[in-house]
Design a protein that fits this description.
By secondary structure, the protein is of the alpha/beta class. It contains five helices and eight strands. The chain folds into two domains: about 10-70, Signal recognition particle alu RNA binding heterodimer, srp9/1 (2-Layer Sandwich); about 80-160, 2,3-Dihydroxybiphenyl 1,2-Dioxygenase, domain 1, CATH 3.10.180. The termini are far apart.
Length: about 160
């Protein structure tokens, strides 16, 4: 990761003292993950000298900075990160790990232990809820709307009218 600002977009996540813990958690979840620079507060503040100010990390090619900014801001569902998975097994992998200490919400949405929202689903879900058969797509959408964690096989059955 470059610190010269020339490496494109980076998502900054505001934590209240848990940025390094969050980065380490995400590094344990994502198979393609890297830890970058960790910067600590100096005597100039505003945080206690020596504590983590920011931590850079990369998950599946997406760059993040965790900032220990304090309690002023909290995560909410207005922003979430989608994990489009190749199949149900991969979706189950991410779902199980990200809900550890967190909770499932609805339609493949979850909040992790830090309050960050994620959408975890097999990519084929989009082909079903947006499929060429309008009645099948409606059945698939109704099935999905009744789920917390996505069950692709159940959505496929709904699409087929089974």
């Amino acid at each position: 990761m470059s610190s010269d600002g020339s490496d494109g977009f980076t998502t900054c996540l505001w934590f209240d003292g848990r940025a390094e813990e969050a980065a380490n958690f995400y590094l344990s979840v994502f198979k393609d993950a890297k830890l970058g620079t960790i910067a600590r507060y100096t005597e100039a503040g505003p945080g206690p000298e020596g504590e983590v100010m920011v931590v850079e990390f990369e998950l599946n090619g997406q760059k993040f900075v965790g900032l220990n900014g304090g309690p002023e801001f909290r995560f909410n569902e207005a922003v979430s990160f989608q994990i489009r998975c190749k199949d149900q097994d991969e979706a189950d992998y991410y779902w199980d790990r990200l809900t550890d200490g967190g909770q499932g919400v609805a339609c493949g949405w979850l909040k992790d232990r830090f309050g960050v929202s994620w959408q975890v689903f097999p990519s084929a879900l989009l082909d079903l809820v947006g499929g060429p058969d309008p009645e099948g797509a409606a059945r698939a959408t109704r099935a999905m709307l009744g789920m917390v964690k996505i069950d692709l096989a159940a959505v496929e059955r709904a699409y087929a009218g089974e």
